[in-house]
Amino acid sequence: MRSLRMWFKMTLTPSDVASLTSTLSFWEYAEYISGGFVALACVGEYIASFKPWFTGGDKERKDRLEKRSTLLLIIALAAELICLVRTNLISGQVIGALDTKAAEAYRNSGKAIANADTAAGKAKAASDEADTAKVESSKAKQVSATAESVARAARQEADSFEKRIASAVAQANEEVKRAGAAESHLSEALRAAEEVTHKLEAIEKRLAPRVLTKEQQDRIVAIIAHFSGQEVFFAVYDDLDSRNLLATVRSIVKSANWTLVRPLAYMGDIALMVSPAPADTVGYVSKQGIWILAADGHAASGTAAATLAAALAAEGLQCESHRTPDFKGSAIAIIIGKKP
Fold it and tell me: Is 274 helix (H, G, I), strand (E, B) or coil?
C-alpha cells in the first residue's frame, strides 16, 4: 500500500501518461470482451433451461450445455473483475499525474504573480504564464472530472459484477442441493429394490421343491449304512412335493439295507388307508417338516433315527428326531410332512 501511494506521488512525463492511457484502453477493451462472454454464457444457460436449440431437447446434452455455460459465466465474470480492477488502478495513476501537474501549475502561477509585483517588465510574461497555467489547470480539472466519472461508472460496474457473482454462487448451491436430493432418492430406490429381491428369494426358496441330488443321496446312504437291517415305515403329507421326497428317502433307506415293515394302524397323527396294512403301505399325516420317530426306551433305533435326521438336515432339509411312547419295538417312523 505504501509503494502504491509513492507511485501516485511520482511525477510522470507526458510519454508515461500516454503509455498509461494506452494501457487503460487495452484493459477497457478486455473488460468489454469479458462482458460479451458473460452475455454469451447467460444465453447458453437460457437455451439449456428453456429452448431445445443445439441440444435437440436431449436432457444430457442440455445438462452439459448448462454446466459449461455456468463455468464460462464464472470465468468471464472473474476476468471482468480483473479488468475492472486494472482499469481503476491505471485511472488512479492518470488522475494522480494530472493532479500533480495541476498543483505545479498553481505554484508556477503564484511565482508569476510575485515576480509581477517586483518586475514590471516581466508582468506580461508572468501574466501569459498565469493564463497558460489557468488553461492547463482547467484542462486538468476537466480530465479529473472525466476520470471521476469513469471511476464512478467503474464502481457501479463492480457493484453489478458482485451481484452477478452472488447470483452465480446461489445457482451453484441450488445445483448441489438438487444433486444431493437425486442421490438420496437413488439410495432409497436401491434399498427398496434390495428388500424386494430378498422377499422374492425367500418366496422362491419356500416354493422350491425339496430335492436331493444323487451325490447327496450317496452321502446319506454312506452315513446310515452301518444301521443295516433297521426296521422302518413311512407316513406322508398328501401333496406332490411330499410324495416325491418320500420316494427319494425310501430309495435311500433301501440302498442302506433298511427293512420296510407294516406301519401301525394309528400312531398319533398318522392315519392309514387300510388296516391291517402291508409292509410297503404309507400312512398319511397333516404335519409340516420331516419327523423321524423312535420308540422311547429303544436305544439302537433311537440312534439310527437321530443319525438319519442329522444326515438329512446336513443336506439342507428341515428334519427333527424324537422318541415317542406311542409305539413299541425297534421300528422307526419316517414322517414326510408338508414343506414349512
Answer: coil
Q: What is the pLDDT of residues 44-78, one digit of tens each?
A: 888 888 878 877 778 888 888 888 889 999 998 99
Cβ atoms within 10 Å of 81's Cβ, excluding its own: 18
Rounded distance, CA 52 to CA 59, Å?
9
237, part of any domain: yes
**Tally of CB atoms within 10 A around 332:** 30
Q: What is the DSSP string of 217-242?
A: HHHHHHHHGGGTT-EEEEEE-SSHHH
Domain hosting residue 95, numbered range? 2-202
Enter the pTM of the model. 0.41
Please give the Cα distance from 7 to 10 (Å, whole number): 5
Do 109 and 257 lie in a common domain?
no
Which three cell numbers, joined as nine digits, stand for 181? 436430493
pLDDT (tens digit, 9 = 90+) per residue, 253-270? 999 999 998 776 545 455
